[in-house]
Amino acid sequence: LKLGYTYKKITKYAENIEKSTFNYGFLNRNSTELAGGSETTSDIETNNWQFGVGWSGGYGYKLGEAASITPYYTSSLTWTNLDFTDDSLVYPEDERVKELYDETFRFGSSYESGVRIHATDLIALEGGYERSIVFERHLFWKWAGSGIIEIAAHGLLDVFIKEIFKSSPSAGPIVFFVLKSALGYGLYELRQDKMNWPFPSAPPIALD
Predict the structure, then answer these.
(1) How far apart (Å, rounded) are the C-alpha atoms in residues 197 and 60?
(2) What CA–CA distance (Å, rounded) separates 100 from 116?
C-alpha cells in the first residue's frame, strides 16, 4: 500500500519527455510463501511487515495527454519486522540471525528500479526490482556517512545525465535508468558485507 503524490512537468529538452517524481509512504508484507513453492527460495524462510517512506523519480516518454512510459529509480527508508519460521534455519550462524532479528523492528534502506506505465492520470502499472537491507544495528554516524557518499555519487550522475539530455533528449530517460540502476546495484552489493560501506560494520539481511 502506497500513499503519496506524483508531480510531472515537461522538460526543456523535448516536448515529449517529461520529468516525474513520486513521493510516498508505504506499508507492505513480504513472505517466502508468496513464492508459491519455488525451489529457488533460500533455506531461511520469513514473513515480514515493512513500512517507510520512498522517493521515486524518472524521465518518461509521453504517449498522449495522460499516457506515458517512465523508467524510474527509487530510494527509501524502511522499518522491517522480521518473523522467521521455526523450521527454516538449519545452520548455526542462522540461529544467531534468528535470535538477533526475530520479531523485532529494524531500520534499513532500499533501492528499486523499474518501469512505470501510465494509462491515465489515475491508472498506472509498475514492474521493478527492489533490494532492501535490514540493519543489525542503526549506527547513525556511519549510516549518515555512507548516505552522504551515495547522495554525492547520484549528484555526479545527475550532472552527466543532464549533458546527455542536452545532446540527445530521446536517449536521456534510458541513460538515466541504466546509470541510476547500476549505481544502486553496485552500492547495495558493497553493502552486502558492510551495511554502512565503506565504514566497518556488520553485514545486513538483504531482501530481494
Answers:
(1) 32
(2) 37
Return the ∠ at Cα 130 (arms to 1 and 77), rounded to 5°: 65
Please enumerate in sequence order all residues whose Cβ is within 8 A of that of 132, keeping only pairs 6 or more positions apart, or say none.
50, 76, 78, 80, 108, 109, 110, 206, 207, 208
- Spatial separation of the C-alpha atoms in residues 180 and 176, rounded to whole Å: 6
- Give yes or no for a contact between 48 and 80, defined as CB atoms under 8 angstroms apart: yes
Q: Give the whole-angstrom CA distance, residue 95 versus residue 99.
A: 6
DSSP 171: G
Q: How far apart are CA 57 and CA 45, in angstroms?
A: 32
551515495: which residue's cell? 150
Q: What is the largest CA-CA distance in the chain?
A: 59
**Mean per-residue pLDDT over the chain, rounded:** 88
Sheet of 17-31, strand order? 2-10, 17-31, 46-62, 68-84, 105-118, 124-134, 205-207
* Grid cell listed for 115: 518501469
Per-residue pLDDT reduced to its tens digit, 14-73? 889 999 999 999 999 887 777 665 555 555 677 889 999 999 999 999 988 888 999 999
